[in-house]
Amino acid sequence: MTENWAVGVDLGGTTVKIAFLTINGDIVENWEIPTDNSDEGKNITKDIAKSIEEHLAKWNHAKSDVLGVGMGAPGPFDYETGIIFNTVNLGWPDNFPLKEKLETDLGLPVVIDNDANCAALGEMWKGAGSGCTDLVCVTLGTGVGGGVIVNGQIVQGAKGAAGEIGHLTSVVENGALCNCGKTGCLETIASATGIVRLANEMLVDQNVESELRTVVTNSGMMITAKDVFDSAKNGDIVAEEVVEFVASHLGLVLANIANTLNPQKIVLGGGVSKAGDVLLTPVKEYFNKYCFKSVAESTVIDVATLGNTAGVIGAAWLAKDQKLNESIV
User: Fold this and answer.
1) Burial of 43 (0-12, 13-18, 19+ CB in 10 A)
2) 29 sits in which H/E element
3) Taking the CA of residue 190 as centre, how many other CA atoms within 13 Å lie in the half-sphere pointing to its CB?
4) What is the biggest distance separating any 2 CA atoms in the chain, rounded to whole angstroms?
5) What is the pLDDT of residues 157-188, one digit of tens each?
6) In this predicted model, what pLDDT tens digit does every residue of 259-300 receive, in sequence order?
7) What are phi and psi of 150, to 5 degrees?
8) CB-CB contact of 178 with 168 (8 Å)
9) Helix (H) or strand (E) holding 199
10) Is the whole model's pTM more than 0.85, yes or no?
């Protein structure tokens, strides 16, 4: 008897990550294809379907042995219909019927969720949140994303916009302008972009010797968030100030989230989380400072472990969970 698999798809503006997983969440195979956003993105779902079919054939695996396909997509979209309202990087016209199109091209049931939610589900199923049913995942990358899981299920909210942790506002009064149009969002501080902006501003404001200033002078290139963290580890005064500023505000936001939800874990992912203890240690200190005592004692802050596979693993969990719910009904 052929083993049942679930398919996970993580749709991005540059590449599409795809994986076959067992019902226990073990990756059988994972690969990438380019995202063809030309001609209003009309080839994207066709390319995904073709690639999945080719890889199934390679494994001598029939479509009938696939539980379904889960996809993480850069919303916003209607979770019931799978219609994606608008996309910046995919070329589709507004209100594109993503679920319907992929199901038609592939001939398998498809379930779609926000890509950040899928990353959170992946960490819950097989990553740092394994064993937890109440979990918050915060992704610190170019922007700041989030996913909230309560009783093992993603919290969608009334319009599917729950978990927009990066756009908690007034984190800094009269703060920097965010891409969302508001000012003072967490994303303007705790993202890689925000960290670089803060560092550059402090280099202008403070006329002191700095390893960061030397990086710019010697290379003639823009500093990166990694440069900031590396310099902070070396005791650079400007870099240390940037990290302290970021940690204090991130710790405050995480404390407020924990005080509201009291999750078992808050998992930090994305490129910024790779800074390690130079960021995590002060974040935990501020978290404990601002957190309600019993919440601080029961909510653990941890670093994500799945990296780039979190999205496909979480997407496959969606397909498995939907199939399970259908069998119960």
Assistant:
1) middle
2) strand 27-34
3) 32
4) 71
5) 887 788 989 998 866 777 898 888 888 899 99
6) 999 999 999 999 999 999 999 999 999 999 999 999 999 999
7) -125, 130
8) no
9) helix 192-205
10) yes
103 close to 3: Cβ distance less than 8 angstroms: no
The Cα–Cα gap between 125 and 207 comes to 49
Q: Is the peptide bond before 97 cis (omega within 30 degrees of 0)?
A: no
Domain boundaries, the chain: 5-121+309-328, 130-304
State in words which class domain 5-121+309-328 has: alpha beta
Lowest mean pLDDT, pick from 250-259, 271-280, 300-309, 318-327: 318-327
> Phi-psi region for residue 289, left (φ > 0), alpha (ψ -120 to 50) or beta?
alpha
| CB burial string 139-164: b at 16+ within 10 A, e below | bbbbbbbbbbbeeeebebeeebebbb
| Integer CA distances (angstroms), 189 to 73, 87, 140, 241, 318, in order | 25, 25, 10, 13, 32
- How is residue 97 annotated by DSSP? E
Query: Selecting from 3.30.420.40, 3.40.190.10, 3.40.47.10, 3.30.559.70, what CATH number does the domain 130-304 have?
Result: 3.30.420.40
Q: Number of helices and strands (H, E) in the chain?
A: 11, 13
